[in-house]
């Protein structure tokens, strides 16, 4: 089936769908709203500011002020469910009958929800669902956890989710990725506000590009999600949800960090500043959220060899979210994010890149936009139409020994359009949709003037690829007493077009089913089980666009001409226990996972002696791969002043046949790792916080020139390498926060130490011929920081 026919079918379905919904809406459209609502929200006998008040099956909403009061107009006559909710509290619903010309009054008293059981999530089923009703386990990373762990970027905060771990893959430029359940970053689907718009090009430096301050929350689902979200959602899904404008608020903060304090090495400075503000019109119809972020980090040299282990960064990010309520049942949302980031690693930072002995540098300009239209229909349905796009302009230099031949320019455009309809009716619900995702990528090596030969070298096209995916998906949920069954499926047609290398063209049809069972064994105990199938299309992936450089060799990545899609079969089962015992709140989770990868993607190095370039060729392992293990999580709060959360993962990840340097085990993947977070409100204005991450031993490849007598040197295709086993690490952080008012303005002062015991790699390779990929363990050595925040929502 060609592209034009697919477009025609998709557009025809969209038109039929739209016509049906419009007809239904026109038949049920109510009269012009004329009623008003006033009230207050309290918690523990005190006013609760910034609680959200919404009216079911409408776009109407407001937020309580500093005294807990709220008001809302333009409400239609009739009986509606009014809901009050706030982070950390159980939502309360009340049925109110509104009459024309009258003001309804209501008072809400909210109870604490320490374990977050009543929290609403959207990623599990592509719709708003209470966490305890979700068909799969959803972990939520809140702004409080990001602040407690002092996570400047989103990636750092994901270390505090069971089964997830952020790792650094390059000494030179700090190329990072998030591993989920042992699988690398390309196995996870990253969403921005529920849309798969995070492109392969943007994913090279991934979640470290995005500031934590722009996030309302992060939702993480482990296990295959291709049935709802398409390609790459094999290990799981990470959904970045930005802040909604629901009230007038502001916060401004600035922070300074000193990297490497007391380690015997020179220190490096890391400075950042954040700004957030939300503005809502008097009639509550229009809201605007603005955010800004600035960061400047100096390079850090851990072993005094004049080459950086932590890259220099200059980042400026600006963004906005605009909501406008067209009427009481429909609204439109516009999102905009612009990220400019320059990063560089190597040596001679004061010189041009091509005059350094080693320089890996990238300059990202990323623009993301999204437009969403939503309309409530009937008494339990919603229809939405959406479109989003991300443009990436990346200038790069990956070179050594004063090379002029290693400047590059990469351009990428990703866009996603689709429509979705969900309906709840009694104990049943259904969600259906169609969408198209396109990704265009062009990578060039820039030309230069060769001084020695006097020759002008022209630009060289490396990659010119287009990926198109057209999908149709549906999920049906049925509640049968204490049991909830969810059945879902997605059909995708993908087309990979390689305009430069015709043998890279590929296409396929993929059917991805999903089945989930939720059983409320007891009010405090839930059992979940699921099966899901996922896939990865044979495209250019994130890591393919990163080049490892040293004075002795260069490492690039490429796909085998016969590369086929990778298919996954994932099985998961979990027990989730949550109970309040007197003043104690206790939550315990045990989750087992098993994933079988068919035609698993695996890379093996090939060395070209004439050019000194090592190419990792990605091909299919016909014997597949297996990832299995168990995640544990515990949440304990003995009193409302103390909160403790911890997670631990035990797993194995192996290929069916030997891969790099004869190893079957996944490299860079520890068999055990975990985290904890603890905070204690000593007095009303003082909070003490401790956080920590544990990384177990793992195998890693070494290709440098400093082999030891303990190395078992293996020679493959003229490449000398050895498999080494890293030590384990425990990264402990301590922090203190103090709130006070100065001149009537609320301030928060904070400071602390990351990696207080300096649990950090101590055998970095050194010199111009180092192996830059030989990097493991915590991202930073001991780091001391302090900062200040001004906000009306402290």
UniProtKB/TrEMBL annotation:
Signal peptide: none
Mode of membrane association: Multi-pass membrane protein
Primary site of residence: membrane
The protein's name: TonB-dependent receptor
Family named by the database record: Belongs to the TonB-dependent receptor family.
Compartment(s): Cell outer membrane
InterPro entries cross-referenced by the UniProt entry: Beta-barrel_TonB (IPR000531), Beta-barrel_TonB_sf (IPR036942), CarboxyPept-like_regulatory (IPR008969), Plug_dom (IPR012910), Plug_dom_sf (IPR037066), TonB-dep_rcpt-like (IPR039426)
């Amino acid at each position: 089936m060609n592209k034009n026919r697919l477009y025609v079918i998709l557009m025809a379905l969209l038109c039929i769908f739209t016509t049906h919904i419009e007809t239904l809406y026109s038949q049920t459209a109510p009269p012009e709203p004329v009623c008003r609502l006033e009230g207050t929200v309290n918690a523990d006998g005190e006013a609760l500011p910034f609680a959200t008040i919404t009216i079911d099956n409408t776009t109407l909403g407001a937020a309580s002020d500093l005294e807990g009061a709220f008001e809302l107009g333009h409400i239609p006559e009739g009986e509606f469910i009014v809901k009050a909710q706030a982070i950390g509290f159980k939502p309360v619903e009340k049925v109110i009958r509104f009459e024309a010309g009258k003001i309804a009054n209501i008072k809400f008293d909210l109870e604490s929800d320490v374990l977050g059981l009543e929290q609403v999530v959207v990623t599990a089923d592509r719709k708003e669902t209470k966490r305890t009703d979700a068909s799969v386990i959803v972990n939520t990373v809140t702004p409080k956890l990001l602040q407690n762990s002092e996570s400047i970027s989103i990636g750092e905060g994901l270390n505090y989710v069971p089964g997830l771990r952020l790792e650094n893959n390059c000494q030179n430029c700090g190329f990072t990725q998030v591993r989920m359940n042992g699988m690398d970053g390309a196995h996870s689907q990253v969403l921005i506000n529920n849309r798969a718009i995070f492109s392969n090009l943007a994913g090279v430096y991934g979640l470290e590009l995005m500031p934590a301050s722009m996030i309302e929350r992060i939702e993480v689902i482990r296990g295959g999600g291709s049935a709802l979200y398409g390609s790459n959602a094999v290990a799981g899904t990470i959904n970045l949800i930005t802040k909604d404008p629901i009230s007038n608020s502001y916060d401004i903060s600035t922070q300074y960090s000193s990297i490497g304090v007391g380690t015997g090495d020179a220190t490096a400075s890391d400075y950042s500043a954040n700004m957030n503000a939300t503005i809502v019109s008097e009639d509550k119809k229009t809201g605007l959220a603005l955010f800004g972020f600035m960061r400047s980090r100096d390079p850090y040299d851990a072993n005094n060899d004049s080459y950086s282990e932590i890259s220099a960064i200059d980042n400026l990010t600006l963004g906005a979210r605009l909501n406008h309520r067209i009427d009481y049942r429909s609204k439109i949302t516009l999102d905009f994010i612009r990220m400019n980031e320059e990063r560089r690693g190597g040596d001679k930072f004061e010189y041009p890149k091509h005059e350094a002995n080693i320089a890996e540098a990238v300059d990202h300009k990323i623009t993301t936009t999204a437009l969403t239209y939503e309309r409530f229909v009937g008494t339990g349905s919603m229809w939405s139409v959406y479109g989003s796009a991300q443009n990436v302009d990346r200038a790069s230099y990956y070179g050594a020994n004063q090379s002029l031949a290693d400047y590059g320019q990469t351009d990428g455009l990703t866009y996603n359009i689709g429509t979705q309809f969900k309906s709840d009716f009694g104990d049943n619900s259904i969600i259906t949709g169609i969408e198209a995702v396109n990704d265009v990528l062009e990578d060039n090596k820039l030309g230069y003037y060769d001084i020695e030969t006097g020759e002008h070298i022209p630009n060289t096209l490396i990659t010119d690829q287009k990926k198109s995916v057209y999908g149709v998906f549906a999920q049906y949920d049925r509640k049968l007493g204490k049991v909830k069954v969810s059945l879902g499926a997605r059909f995708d047609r993908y087309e990979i077009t390689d305009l430069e290398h015709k043998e890279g063209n590929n296409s396929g049809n993929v059917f991805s089913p999903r089945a989930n069972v939720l059983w409320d064994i007891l009010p405090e105990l839930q059992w979940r089980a699921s099966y899901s199938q996922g896939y990865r299309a044979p495209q250019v992936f994130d890591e393919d666009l990163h080049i490892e450089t040293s004075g002795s060799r260069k490492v690039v990545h490429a796909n085998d001409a016969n590369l086929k899609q990778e298919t996954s079969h994932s099985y998961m089962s979990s027990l989730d226990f949550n109970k309040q015992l007197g003043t104690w709140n206790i939550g315990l989770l045990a989750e087992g996972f098993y994933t079988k990868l068919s035609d698993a993607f695996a890379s093996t190095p090939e060395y070209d002696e004439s050019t000194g370039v090592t190419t990792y060729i990605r091909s299919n392992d016909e014997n597949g791969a297996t990832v299995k293990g168990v995640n544990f999580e515990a949440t304990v709060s003995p009193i409302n002043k103390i909160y403790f959360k911890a997670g631990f993962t035990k797993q194995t990840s192996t290929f069916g046949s030997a891969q790099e340097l004869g190893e079957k085990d996944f490299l860079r993947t520890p068999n055990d790792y975990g985290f904890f977070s603890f905070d204690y409100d000593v007095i009303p204005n003082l909070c003490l916080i401790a956080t920590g991450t544990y990384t177990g031993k793992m195998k890693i490849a070494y290709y440098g020139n400093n082999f030891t007598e303990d190395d078992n040197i293996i020679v493959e295709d003229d490449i000398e390498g050895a498999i080494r086993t890293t030590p384990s690490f425990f990264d402990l952080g301590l922090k203190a926060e103090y709130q006070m008012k100065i001149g009537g303005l609320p301030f928060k002062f904070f400071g602390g130490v990351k990696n207080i015991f300096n649990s950090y790699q101590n055998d970095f390779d050194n010199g111009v011929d180092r192996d830059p990929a030989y990097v493991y363990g915590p991202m930073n050595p001991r780091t001391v920081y302090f900062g200040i925040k001004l906000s009306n929502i402290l």
